Sequence to fold (84 residues):
Amino acid sequence: MTYVLAREEFIKMRNNIRRAVQALDVCWKCQKVSECQKYILGHTVLVWLCNGCLSVIEKPAVERPRTRTHAAAPNVPDSWASLR
Ligand SMILES: [Zn+2]
Fold:
């Protein structure tokens, strides 16, 4: 019994591998052959993108440093001027 189950697992695994190989496609953006995923561009055009480009497209803006809350130099009391 366990042998049959193991065999089924093996077939399942093999199918998964086959599927993964079939998933290889040319990335629409970087033109590299990679495991691509469907991405709907502008909600209309279906393209294939590799994971790298996908993550770039999903987060288009390069994460900018957050607008800093005033990190101005602390106001030094006038009395400290003599310490300089
Ligand atoms: Zn790509």
Summary: Residues 10 and 39 are 31 Å apart (CA to CA).
